[in-house]
Amino acid sequence: MNEFQVGERVYPYPRFAKNDTKRAGTIGGFSEYILIPNAKLNHSLYRIPENISDKTACLIEPFTVGCRAARRALSKKNNNAVVFGCGTIGIAAAIALKYFGVKKVLICDISDFRLHIAQKLGFEICNMNTENFEEKSSAYSGTAMSLNGQAPDIDIFIDAAGAENILNLFMEHGKIESRFVSVAVNKAIRSLDLLHLTYSQKSIIGSGGYMPCDVKDVFQIMKCGKWDIERIITNEFMLDDIEKAIRTASDIDNALNVVIKF
Question: What is the b/e burial string over 65-82, where b = at least 16 CB atoms within 10 angstroms of the residue's CB?
Fold first, then answer.
């Protein structure tokens, strides 16, 4: 029995789209048509709720990645968090943290253009090139104890940027029992002071991809209307201009999320 009708708006879940989790990155994001063999509802294909616009729906996939990072952070009500990286996944993680009940979320980046968008979405911001992170985060969240003395009262550090100094910053300024989540793609080999982690009871957590529960939460986030998510899309191009679109997407001072229209 066919569970879908021609003309329905659907979201293809990459992990199961080809019935092979190893092919999650091969379904063809820029293709005009995508084949989903033996499609199953709420498994390989999800119906997009009517009150999510087409434009917002374009962001479902990166939002699920950000939502997974927020979930992996073991978010708790009244926690404070900082997200490094003001791209789509970083902003998605920040929104998901708030959705999960985190009290205060600071977003850090080096692009004033992108930080301004995050600020319009209701987040406190910090430009790492022009502001002192420790001073800004302490003023925003208060202070708590770390092994190195007073530190910003931040429970969750999410790295959605991949810069080398972010883990170092967590090791130096993370308070006791704080948690670091790496969602940025970074294959660099790093050394860690395990004795410091042991005595400070800190955690370092990996977050890759997403699970069905993240898709469901993203639908709820997008449906609730609390955040103007479409604001994240700064540019739209037709498929014939895809090369220009990709170049534009890499311009952090003038673009954030770029959408290809068919």
Answer: bbbbbbbbbebeeebbbb
Owner of token pair 């390989």: 44
Give the side-chain half-sphere CA count within 13 A for 218.
31
As a whole number of angstroms, the distance between CA 258 and CA 247 comes to 10
Answer whether 0.90 is exceeded by the pTM.
yes
Q: Which amino acid is at 245?
A: A
**156-159 vs 179-182, strand pairing mode:** parallel
Contacts of 179 by beta carbon, 8 Å cutoff, 6+ apart = 73, 74, 155, 156, 157, 202, 203, 204, 205
Tokens, residue 232? 């994240």
What 3-state DSSP class applies to 45? strand
The residues with which 143 forms a beta bridge, in sequence order, are 152
Element (DSSP H or E) covering residue 80: strand 80-84
Mean pLDDT throughout 72-84?
95
